[in-house]
Amino acid sequence: MSEMIHFNRPDGKTCPGYLVTPKTRSNAPGFVVIQEWWGLNDQIKRTADLLAGAGYRALVPDLYRGKITTASDEANHLMADLNFPDAASQDIRGAVQYLKQSSTKVAVGGFCMGGALTILAALSVPEMDAGACFYGMPPLDADELKKIKIPLICHFANKDDWCTPAKVNELESVLKRSNSHFELYRYDAQHAFMNEARPQVYDAVSAKKAWERTFEFLKKELA
User: How far apart are CA 48 and CA 133, in angstroms?
Assistant: First the structure.
């Protein structure tokens, strides 16, 4: 079952979100899905539907409050206007707290901008049990990243001009000095290779492998 809801943030404000509940278990593990820079569009809803089909209660917080775009310039503008610390510590944390009312364990995962926010959430959402980062990283220094303690699975593309292989190597080096039990994978693909709505970059083989690895990780960490 899918529905649009409003959930409470820690500061008492509310955030809209797209919630999908699996048919089998109302207390299934939870997964907070973080959008790309396009907004809460049909593609990210389908991603939540996929997770629900795999047995997870999936919630996508609407970080842009109803704004959606298909134009890169506008998406960049929307992302630039987003308060990342507030999104992580309030919208995403509120989503995790909402799911934890019924789910014992909850992961956070996102794509592109959502991948960067997943890393931020790992540092600012104490209720978060695991993270799944897909080709995104925030501009944090090593001293901050070393504070991550929860398990992470990270997926990056070798042909990415944003999260370049050099930056991925730096992230991996820092995570090795943290207390996070992490897995990091590289794919011979382009940025956004998981997004089936973008045929120019979508890589079905890499996406399938990344999902397989992610579901194995979730099965282990959210048990």
Answer: 15
Q: State residue 10 phi and psi, 5-degree precision.
A: -55, -30
Q: Coil, strand or helix: which one is 1? A: coil
Structurally, the chain folds into a number of domains equal to 1
CA distance 59 to 31: 6
Which amino acid is residue 63, in one-letter code? L
> What is the distance between the alpha carbons of residues 113 and 134, in angstroms, rounded to a whole number?
9
Domain that holds residue 205: 2-221
Strands, sheet with 2-8, edge to edge from the N-terminal-most edge strand: 2-8, 14-20, 57-61, 30-34, 106-111, 130-134, 152-157, 182-187
CATH of the domain at 153: 3.40.50.1820
- With CA atoms as reference, report the closest residue to 191 among 72, 96, 31, 102: 72
Q: What is the pLDDT of residues 149-194, one digit of tens each?
A: 999 999 999 999 999 999 999 999 999 999 999 999 999 999 999 9
Are the C-beta atoms of 219 and 56 separated by less than 8 Å? no
What gap in Å lies between CA 208 and CA 48, rounded to an integer?
A: 16
Total residue length of the chain: 223
Contact 34, 111 (CB under 8 A): yes
- pLDDT of 25 > 80? The answer is no
Calpha distance 62→212 (Å, rounded) = 26
